[in-house]
Amino acid sequence: MLRVEEVPAPVAGPGQVVVGVAVADTLFLETQLRSGWGTEYFGLTPPYVPGTGVAGRVLSTGEGVDSGWAGKEVVAGIDGGGYAEQAVAPAEALVEIPAGLDVQTAAGLLQTGPAALSLLDAAKLQPSDRVLVTAAAGGLGSLLVQLAKAVGAHVTAAARGTEKLKLAAELGSDTVVDYSTENWADGIETDVVFDGVGGEIGQAAFGTVTRRFFGYGVPSGGFTEVDPAEAERRGIEVTGIEQVQFNREEMRALVERTLAEAAAGRVKPVIGRTFPLARAAEAHATMENRTVLGKTLLLV
Predict the structure, then answer these.
(1) Do 100 and 160 touch, CB atoms closer than 8 A?
(2) Which of 95, 192, 239, 282 is the most core-located residue (most Cβ within 10 A)?
């Protein structure tokens, strides 16, 4: 169950601030964690307040925090509690939103932007590379399509349904393919795969790659299972979810890069739906039904 409750207003402790949340980011992963999946990885026990990314204005600062943060419009990755009117954030996680960038755009890039940049950095793409992106119409996939095209790579976007394939084409994909069709990966050959789906779709995507496979997605219910012996035989380097997991310092640096790219007009999040905070359960249902394009945000 996901429901709205009244709780005492948070207070900033040492090294913390309280953010008046304007936008709370959502992740498909959060719908899975609610179901009980992933407890061995994340250790969440209900009841808890979801939300690991917020954007808004700093309302107050705790001991040891520069009081100059008060009143600034920021984004912050937090450890939980983002689906709320106010949220506590570590001061070291704060990134000021650049002038000219609106708060919804910043929120839409907060968590997927760093992941996309990290994946592109690791892939070391060249203009001649052939790239396959699964879940290409999702929050992360849509950014990967844009960034890979900016490098000059040939991008094949894989998604489910006409609307998502249309979006992928509009973002610059050279080829689109519907992975709800049988044998969808036949005839595709790629240098690099960014797999945001996992499961059987991820395994089919792995069959197309000749150099580097990134398997970080679990919307199918599990990560792509890759046979290490086969990967070694084919000379493929396999990288898992560790590529999109960061410590606080790494995250902040990547967020700053992402927002700078957005302020310069070089990357833009696809924000498919927004919901008021009180309708968070509806937002989750929309994501679970795979009916939303790009990011889903909660507006406070």
Answers:
(1) no
(2) 192
* Alpha carbon separation from 171 to 6, 102, 164, 186, 232 (Å, rounded): 41, 21, 11, 24, 34
Match 């990357």 to its residue by tokens: 267
Query: Quick one: angle between helices 162-170 and 139-151, nearest 10?
Result: 30
Beta strands in 93-236 (DSSP E): 94-96, 130-134, 154-159, 175-178, 190-195, 209-215
DSSP, collapsed to helix, strand or coil, labels residue 17 as: strand
Tens digits of per-residue pLDDT, 90-145? 999 999 999 999 999 999 999 999 999 999 999 999 998 999 999 999 999 999 99
85's tokens: 């009117």
**What are the tens digits of pLDDT across the range 246-291?**
998 999 999 999 999 999 988 999 999 999 999 999 999 999 988 8
First to last CA, the chain: 20
State the Cα–Cα distance between residues 44 and 87, nearest whole angstrom: 18
Of 86, 88, 106, the C-alpha closest to 25 is 106
153 phi, psi to nearest 5 deg: -70, 160
CA dist., res. 72 & res. 69, Å (int):
6
Q: Under a CB-based contact definition with an 8 Å cutoff, are residues 132 and 208 in contact? A: yes
CA-based torsion, 48, 53, 59, 65: positive or negative: positive
